[in-house]
Amino acid sequence: MSGPAPKSTILDIKPYVPGKAKAAGFAAPLKLSANENALGCSPKARAAYVAAAENLHLYPDSKAIALREAIAAKHKLEADRIVLGTGSDEIFSLVCQAYLSPGDAMVQPHYAFAAWAIAAKAAGARVVSAPERDYAVDVDALLAAVDPTTRVVFVANPANPTGTCVPFADIQRLHAGLPEHVVLVLDAAYAEFAEGVPGYEDGMTLARTAPNVVLTRTFSKLHGLAALRIGWGYAAAPIVDALNRIRLPFNAATPAQAAAIAALGDSDFVARSLTLVREMRPRLTHALTNAGLRTLPSATNFVTALFPEGPEAARAMELHLAQCGILVRGLSGYDMPSALRVTIGSDPEMLEFECALRGSAAAKRAGGSLGRNVPGSS
Ligand SMILES: Cc1ncc(COP(=O)(O)O)c(C=O)c1O
Question: Candidates 88, 215, 229: which one to mutate for ligand 1, based on the most atoms within 8 Å of Cβ?
Fold first, then answer.
């Protein structure tokens, strides 16, 4: 039997593989695999989410007016130039659907967030990856990869899975080198964690004035609302108009809108989340370097470490940690098979991670594997 065949580019798509959530034998493993917020979410956001349960029979506000106004007030933006998405993932898809046709190209850095390529290929486009310079975005390589078929360029700053960021001056240079008919998507999912990095800016100022820049942000990371799937884009009015035409009418659920508004108003939770990352990032980096690994400079809520001994060693550590009930992200799907990505956790979580890491070093010295936790105990 030969059923319908999907468009050829669809079968070329590597399905997205999320960070692992299960460790055999552990009811509640320590999940350091998806860059979620170790503190959970704002209690105010949770209360707003619960209160929204009163009206589950009603459709959401399809224009998300209150949320767009809250975002606009927070970031000093024009509310009518903000478009809401089911996670910022959906904004990537909308941009690709609106601006990429079969035969067009999307250009991205080599170590790119996987959702972009899925969105581009779903729109029938080719994906061109430009080399990076020591795991950081290389603007010259990106510009060199642009040709007359290029319609969209994606960059995350700071980037996932590397955690590195580039100065805003580089992004400005990239933008200046692109023809105006090319859409530049600046994915700023981790922007808040880059505060204080010299020369860093998320790109909002560029999106404010340029006709071809889409800045995206998310409530999944700093605000800890990943389960609610809510993110947004900010761009020139004609781009927002195009995205709104193809956006599903009720793409932002009422509880998600309500929780996001409350999250924006909870500066205490935001401050605590930022403090945690600020305090734990050097500590996690230190633990990884102490274990003999090379860490990439992180401007995010995770640290990516390279194993000088290669992919086998990275895989063995991922397995060892899983046997201790700790889940980290192996990066072979991102063409970094010698690397692991570790989300920053709370103080006790980092302690647990450090013990497991030390346990692995001890096991290596003893020539065997050493699991710290008894399966089922956590
Ligand atoms: C660089 C980057 N952009 C976007 C996202 C997705 O964000 P959202 O949950 O808003 O779809 C992630 C999630 O891990 C990410 O790492």
Answer: 88
Identity of the amino acid at 255: P
User: Which among 281, 312, 316 is positioned nearest to 295, based on CA atoms?
Assistant: 281
CA–CA distance, 305 with 194 (Å, rounded to integer): 18
Measured from the Cα of 86, ligand 1's closest atom is: 11
230-274 pLDDT per residue, tens: 999 999 999 999 999 999 999 999 999 999 999 999 999 999 999
Q: How far is ligand 1, taken at its centre, from the CA of residue 365, in Å?
A: 38
Q: What are phi and psi of 231, to 5 degrees?
A: -150, 175
Tokens of 237: 């009015």
Contact 366/16 with Cβ under 8 angstroms?
no
Residue 308: closest CA among 295, 293, 320, 287: 293
Q: Residue 286 corresponds to which amino acid?
A: H
Q: What is the pTM of this model?
A: 0.94
Pocket of ligand 1, beta carbon within 6 A: 35, 87-89, 113, 156, 160, 187, 189, 218, 220, 226, 231
Identify the DSSP state of 55. G
Query: What is the distance between the alpha carbons of residues 122 and 135, in angstroms, rounded to a whole number?
Result: 27
Question: Do 331 and 341 meet the contact criterion of CB atoms below 8 Å apart?
Answer: yes
Which domains does the chain possess? 18-40+268-366 (3.90.1150.10), 43-265 (3.40.640.10)
